[in-house]
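Exercise 7. Given the encoded structure of a 196-residue chain, write a plausible sequence.
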């Protein structure tokens, strides 16, 4: 009978010691901050780390953002124009010729590039009732319209190169086009935000 109590005592003592050691191990373990488990982003060209966010939008909202940007950054002036995003990118504007205002519309088919920029391939054009070559109309627009530096008309190739990487936004945020399928209304961008 005496042995049973001794065995029970040592079993109970072993269990208590096991629990005490387990608690001590948990208490002594270092605490990891949430940042330790966050995947580190690559460095930007300037040596800053960056965090990326995927932003999805639709044609109507993108149209509003583009035209707000053009107005707020002062890219509308004596010759006004606006951009409407439908199943193509449409550029509407007026063009003064001999005291008359000619209405103009160009349509482009957008293509997102691997580097995050966009190419707008010219699809159709109308300039009043004039029949002018596309390259000439694009040259007229390039020389008369106030455009951001990162939007480059390439009349000979009949396209517009939109270098989103060169677009300057507040807080050095960079934008890259991820998908740009207007027929499916699948439009997404990656925002690259520098962090310390």
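Solution.
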């Amino acid at each position: 009978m005496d042995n049973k109590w001794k065995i029970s005592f040592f079993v109970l003592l072993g269990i208590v010691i096991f629990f005490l050691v387990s608690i001590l191990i948990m208490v002594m373990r270092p605490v990891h901050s949430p940042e330790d488990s966050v995947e580190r982003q690559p460095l930007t060209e300037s040596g800053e780390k960056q965090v990326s966010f995927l932003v999805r939008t639709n044609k109507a909202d993108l149209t509003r953002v583009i035209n707000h940007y053009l107005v707020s950054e002062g890219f509308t002036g004596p010759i006004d124009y606006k951009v409407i995003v439908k199943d193509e990118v449409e550029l509407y504007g007026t063009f003064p010729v001999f005291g008359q205002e000619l209405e103009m519309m160009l349509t482009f088919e957008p293509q997102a590039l691997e580097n995050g920029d966009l190419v707008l391939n010219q699809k159709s054009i109308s300039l009043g009732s004039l029949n002018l070559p596309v390259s000439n109309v694009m040259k007229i627009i390039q020389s008369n319209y106030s455009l951001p530096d990162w939007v480059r008309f390439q009349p000979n190739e009949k396209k517009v190169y939109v270098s989103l990487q060169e677009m300057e936004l507040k807080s050095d945020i960079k934008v890259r086009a991820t998908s740009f399928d207007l027929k499916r209304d699948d439009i997404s961008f990656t925002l690259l935000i520098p962090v310390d």
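Remark. The first strand starts at residue 49 and ends at 57. Students should compare their own answers with the one above.
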